[in-house]
Design a protein that fits this description.
With 139 residues, this protein is mainly alpha-helical. It has helices spanning 3-26, 37-59, 61-64, 76-104, 114-134. The radius of gyration is 17 Å and the shape is elongated. It starts with a helix and ends in a 5-residue tail after the last helix.
Length: 139
């Protein structure tokens, strides 16, 4: 993929969180969990994008890579799995960059239960893979 695609992958959730935070501030709402509204939005947007992008790209993987199926060693499951892993690793890196930056900038605390966070991320990814496999015409 071109480099600008990965840059856009980083900019898109940041822009979404920024817009939601500005709207939240403009209508003078209180924080929903009496804490950091920025952390609230980031922890909602990143898992959503992990699920949505994984499901969309896995569902469209076979249709967009038909030429690869002409090679005798490549099967449909190889294409779908590799596309899902690419999306999963990409969104994991984006999440680490954004949440790591928030932790370093002291906008977010370290998670109290990190293994539960890892399990949730794995399950969200698995659910995105499942929806993408079941619904190949999602795009």
């Amino acid at each position: 993929m071109p480099a600008w695609v990965y840059l856009w992958t980083l900019i898109e959730p940041i822009a979404d969180v920024a817009v939601m935070s500005v709207v939240y501030w403009a209508i003078n709402r209180q924080d929903p969990v009496r804490g950091n509204v920025l952390l609230f939005f980031v922890t909602g947007v990143l898992p959503f994008f992990l699920f949505q992008k994984t499901a969309l790209h896995v569902g469209a993987a076979l249709r967009s890579n038909q030429m690869l199926l002409r090679f005798p060693l490549i099967h449909a499951l190889d294409i779908v799995t590799s596309r899902g892993l690419l999306e999963g690793v990409t969104w994991l890196a984006v999440s680490v960059l954004i949440l790591g930056g928030m932790i370093i900038g002291d906008y977010a605390p370290l998670p109290e239960y990190p293994m539960e966070c890892v399990a949730a991320i794995i399950l969200i990814f698995a659910m995105g893979m499942g929806v993408g496999l079941i619904n190949p015409g999602a795009r």
